[in-house]
Amino acid sequence: MTDPAARLLHRDDRVLILDKPAGLPVHAGPRGSASLEDWLPALALGKRRVPQPAHRLDTDTAGCLVLGRTKPALAELGALFAAGRVEKTYWAVVRGAPPAPDGVVEAPLLKRSTAREGWRMVVDPAGQPARTAWRILGQASGLSWLELRPRTGRTHQIRVHCAHLGCPILGDPRYGGGPGRLHLLARAIALPLDPPVAATAPPPPHMRAALAACGWQEG
After folding, report:
1. Are 99 and 161 a contacting pair, CB within 8 Å?
2. Which of 31, 38, 47, 147 has the most CB atoms within 10 Å of its CB?
3. 170 phi and psi, to 5 degrees?
4. CA pair distance 153, 190, nearest whole angstrom
5. On the CB side of 6, how many CA atoms lie within 13 Å of its CA?
6. Range of the domain at 48
7. What positions carry a catalytic annotation?
8. Residues 186, 57: contact at Cβ < 8 Å?
9. Count of domains forming the chain
10. Is the C-alpha dihedral spanning 13, 17, 19, 25 positive or negative?
11. pLDDT digits over 199-217, tens only?
12. Is 199 part of a structural domain of the chain?
């Protein structure tokens, strides 16, 4: 088993920031499959209280996940996320390209369910407001490497907004990105605490070839 502590990007008495691997759900499903919950006892790191996640990442999204180590810290973190004061930066490799080198997509999102396909998020005027800024960092044949900064925190927001721009995320079959592994990384996070806390996650192994093709260089 992976040593969870070896994946820590930041550690202090109040906050941990973990480099969550792609494929690991934050919470156990109804079948009790492996999840981040299995890692939490090892992440107590001498404290009586087991740390708890302050937000969520999709199962297939890799990168920065914030955990609170005390009740007051968890409450403060929850308030920061709820108020939209946490600066979140994502990297994605997408099929095609957005319509401009940079911009902002504002498209409300609504959860829709069907008996045949299950649930998914869709752009719908009746949905919750959702806003994402994007910037192209590099391109290759048929692919683009994007930096994305969500200004709201809706379910599947980045995945749906990329598809809405005409460039679904590589490896996202639900929203048009085709088969394979999801090429989405919670690259960096900045918490306006006192003192401020920030961390940056490295690209996971399955994203490195596509990122390199688009111009990314390690280090």
Report:
1. no
2. 147
3. -55, 130
4. 15
5. 4
6. 4-213
7. 58
8. yes
9. 1
10. positive
11. 999 999 999 999 999 999 9
12. yes
